[in-house]
Amino acid sequence: MIVLMHQRDGTVHDGIRTSRFSLKGCIDCHAVKGADGKPVTIASGDHFCRTCHDYAAVRIDCFECHASRPESAGASAGSASFPGREHDGAALAQYLRSVGR
After folding, report:
1. Distance, C-alpha 31 to centroid of its chain
2. Predicted TM-score (pTM) above 0.85
3. DSSP string, 47-67
4. Which residues contact 46 (CB under 8 A, 6 or more apart)?
5. What is the per-residue pLDDT across 74-97, written as a single tens digit (0 to 9) for each?
6. Residues 77 and 71 sit within 8 Å (Cβ to Cβ)
7. Residues contacting residue 69 through CB under 8 Å, at least 6 positions apart
8. Cβ of 72: how many Cβ atoms within 10 Å?
9. What is the DSSP letter of 72?
10. Which of 13, 15, 34, 40 could form a cystine bridge with 44, CB 3.0-4.6 A?
11. What kind and span of H or E run contains 84?
12. Strand partners, 85
């Protein structure tokens, strides 16, 4: 878990957006398939992340914004989409520079 926290801090606090620090990369590799052969969502107790979080009684809030299963083959790659607005990495980077991050 310490490795995951370090990567989370690098992404959330330091703005590192490389594939090494990508939640999407974790989800793509560690997806658990359900009875229908499709990856389960965080709503399933079988979800990779839920197995440890449920055991430790720790709330998972990553998936309030991020997808909890791999993108479909036809979906575009990149960051999670936010309902009702476009993800603008340049605007985010400019904001972080302006607040000294």
Report:
1. 12
2. no
3. SHHHHHHHHHT----GGGTS-
4. 32, 34, 40
5. 343 344 444 434 455 666 677 677
6. yes
7. 27, 31, 38, 39, 40, 41
8. 8
9. P
10. 40
11. none
12. 82
